[in-house]
Write a structure and sequence with these properties.
Structural class: alpha/beta
Mean pLDDT: 92
CATH class: Alpha Beta
Number of strands: 8
Strand content: 25-35%
Radius of gyration: 16 Å
Shape: globular
Oligomer: single chain
Low-confidence stretches: none
């Protein structure tokens, strides 16, 4: 694996061994960041189920101000920390070692907001999509800055809902066996 573009372009990064973590492919990351390019400079990025950190590190490489990594698997956390050290990244990020659900529930009471949120649960943890997107579209919607975009990577054959509370899918990109669903907060309808 490698960083696709930006400050750390072409620098190699590692992925955890085994099948428990499924890294986002270089090609799919390139597609994702081509879509997000206009929003990247100065963004606050939340990488949920971060694994190796490839997506959040790519965001930092392309100009994000801060990346928050959330991962609970000890092996993945070790690789994530090693990747950050290999790139000599010492600032502009934070790591939460624990479950995504616990992080989102706790963070919703803090005054932080994210411009971009990426989530990619392990394929054997499919219920995490509904839980996480449900929280972001409901009780934890205050974590999303105005105009925020939430992106979920999933199996192409696994269809996510069009709506999770106030989150509505705005775009679906399919590539190989993977897909990216883009969500934004629906603005309340004007009454008059």
């Amino acid at each position: 694996m490698r960083i696709i573009a930006g400050k750390y372009r072409s620098r190699p990064i590692e992925a955890p061994a085994g099948l428990a973590t499924r890294p986002t492919s270089d090609r799919l990351r390139e597609t994702l960041f081509n879509v997000l390019a206009p929003r990247m400079e100065g963004a606050v990025f939340l990488d949920l189920f971060a694994g190796s950190g490839a997506v959040g590190i790519e965001a930092l490489s392309r100009g994000a101000d801060h990346a928050q990594f959330v991962e609970r698997a000890p092996v993945a956390l070790k690789v994530l920390r090693a990747n950050l050290a290999r790139l000599e990244l010492t600032a502009g990020f934070s790591i939460h070692s624990g479950s995504v659900g616990a992080y989102v529930r706790r963070a919703r009471t803090e005054p932080k907001q994210f411009d971009l949120v990426f989530l990619d649960p392990p394929y054997d943890a499919a219920p995490e999509y509904e839980t996480t997107l449900g929280l972001l579209g409901g009780a934890a919607a205050n974590l999303l800055a105005a105009g925020a975009v939430v992106i979920a990577e999933h199996r192409r054959k696994e269809r996510l809902e069009d709506r999770y509370g106030s989150l509505a899918r705005t775009r679906l990109l399919e590539q190989g066996d993977a897909a990216l669903s883009f969500y934004s907060i629906l603005e309340p309808a004007a009454t008059g």
